[in-house]
Design brief:
Strand order of the largest sheet: 2-1-3
Order of helices and strands: EHEEHHHH
Oligomer: single chain
Subcellular location: Cytoplasm, Cytoskeleton
Number of strands: 3
CATH topology of the largest domain: 60s Ribosomal Protein L30, Chain: A
GO cellular component, one term: microtubule
CATH superfamily of the largest domain: Tubulin/FtsZ, C-terminal domain
Strand content: 15-25%
Structural class: alpha+beta
Number of domains: 2
InterPro entries: Beta_tubulin, Tub_FtsZ_C, Tubulin/FtsZ-like_C, Tubulin/FtsZ_2-layer-sand-dom, Tubulin_C
Number of helices: 5
CATH class of the largest domain: Alpha Beta
GO molecular function: GTP binding; GTPase activity; metal ion binding; structural constituent of cytoskeleton
Distance between the termini: 60 Å
CATH architecture of the largest domain: 2-Layer Sandwich
Domain Tubulin/FtsZ 2-layer sandwich: 1-83
């Protein structure tokens, strides 16, 4: 794991599982489908086909098989919030700021970066809370007069 976050506190926007070695494609697809059904609350429903699997028959050197999972989860906002809080505390005291301004950076760049991080947190929260709008995707019914006539060429 590249970051320490509890991914049960968020929802996956997309994810990818890569398998290397002698692995059955059918078994991988079946298991990934079962995993997605079992954990459907942790996946956004408004991105169709948001789980990708890849297979490579060549195993990594020294192993029979391996797998890698990469996911884009809204739980990452927890880390961004924590970093933002730590940054705010340090920036308020102007801790280490002289090192950066001495090299040509402006204080406004730090303020802008903080604002960008807060925007990112808000965006991830919006994605986590989003639900699919069935009205947008419903098939509209047409009167017979509105349906275009078939034209023979």
């Amino acid at each position: 794991m590249m970051t320490g976050s509890d991914f049960r506190n968020g929802r996956y926007l997309t994810c990818s599982a890569i398998f290397r070695g002698k692995v059955s494609a059918k078994e991988v697809e079946d298991q990934m489908h079962k995993m997605q059904l079992k954990n459907s609350a942790y996946f956004v429903e408004w991105i169709p086909n948001n789980v990708q699997t890849s297979l490579c028959s060549v195993p990594p050197q020294g192993l029979k098989m391996s797998s890698t999972f990469v996911g884009n989860s809204t739980a990452i906002q927890e880390i961004f919030k924590r970093v933002g809080e730590q940054f705010t505390a340090m920036f308020r005291r102007k801790a280490f700021l002289h090192w950066y301004t001495g090299e040509g950076m402006d204080e406004m760049e730090f303020t802008e970066a903080e604002s960008n991080m807060n925007d990112l947190v808000s965006e991830y929260q919006q994605y986590q809370d989003a639900v699919i709008d069935d009205d947008v995707y419903s098939v509209e019914e047409y009167d017979e007069e509105e349906v275009p006539a078939k034209v023979d060429a």
